[in-house]
Amino acid sequence: xxxxxxxxxxxxxxxxxxxxxxxxxxxxxxxxxxxxxxxxxxxxxxxxxxxxxxxxxxxxxxxxxxxxxxxxxxxxxxxxxxxxxxxxxxxxxxxxxxxxxxxxxxxxxxxxxxxxxxxxxxxxxxxxxxxxxxxxxxxxxxxxxxxxxxxxxxxxxxxxxxxxxxxxxxxxxxxxxxxxxxxxxxxxxxxxxxxxxxxxxxxxxxxxxxxxxxxxxxxxxxxxxxxxxxxxxxxxxxxxxxxxxxxxxxxxxxxxxxxxxxxxxxxxxxxxxxxxxxxxxxxxxxxxxxxxxxxxxxxxxxxxxxxxxxxxxxxxxxxxxxxxxxxxxxxxxxxxxxxxxxxxxxxxxxxxxxxxxxxxxxxxxxxxxxxxxxxxxxxxxxxxxxxxxxxxxxxxxxxxxxx
Length: 403
Ligand SMILES: [Zn+2]
Fold this sequence. Notes:
Helices cover 32% and strands 20% of the residues. By secondary structure, it is α/β, with parallel strands linked by helices. It has two domains: 25-239 and 348-401, Alkaline Phosphatase, subunit A (3-Layer(aba) Sandwich), CATH 3.40.720; 246-336, Gyrase A, domain 2. Residues 32-33, 68, 188, 235-236 line the site of zinc ion.
């Protein structure tokens, strides 16, 4: 009899625990290109609230290359770029000659995406998920995307995105999403156009911070303030560039045969047959304001060699320098962009932000740099579900921020 009593107490505790994890909520927000220090300008009262009442990291390290689609995938899959396969915003499958390209159907084709996004892991474990945008969330296979997913429209009103999230959170429990992503591109657009230190940049920073405030208010109004965790991140930082700081690789490689992808902060070169040594040597001899690597000798800390789609030669510009050809130099001079990203991911200016607030997080806890690949295992821990095998992120590097 006594044994039976203990058994029932045990069952009761277990069901409370299961209930608790089913009652976890996370809203993962991304402000594109929000550099680590934008939140230290005294113009972000809502981020300041997260710092005061939650967890703040001094910076959030992206993977190389510090570009948008590759890093949103790293955040949501917990994998290095060479492993999840989105090796740049634009690249070629050298076997089929097909291209992955932003703004094209290819970004919805599942075959390019080798990682398992967190929403897929969650749904497999019976947790409903939703996305009001996240680069790479609109895949063509149903089980690889959130239950509720919006088709990307950059101009969709900012506050209305939050209103939809509030509606999702008020759905009946069996169909209510517990993990939701939210994304805004404004800070990236302004960073490129006006530069990270412009007054226009500060306008964009204030604007997205006010949306964050609106989200906090909305969640409070529907009575869910104490059950929702907010995690605010960005995919990369931004640095000043100038037409005065350029390296014209077309001039350097004059007479050699090759194809390129990317350009600007980094360049991917596929040499024509038999040209690899010559191209590498030519670039190595002229190495000034950039570093040239082959797939074999690129330092391990870039985690950028394993994938078969990564071309043979990789060139990384020094921070603030741009790799150009004759055509792109002309365009750059005619319409100068003021900021860019994609550089060495260890450069602090390429780092983004990480703030977290909610019932699962420590209060007023300040920590150093967090790596973006560690968010996925953190999410698994919050929902108490097993992470996908083969991830690169590690809970032991981030778990200490939880209560
Ligand atoms: Zn971005």
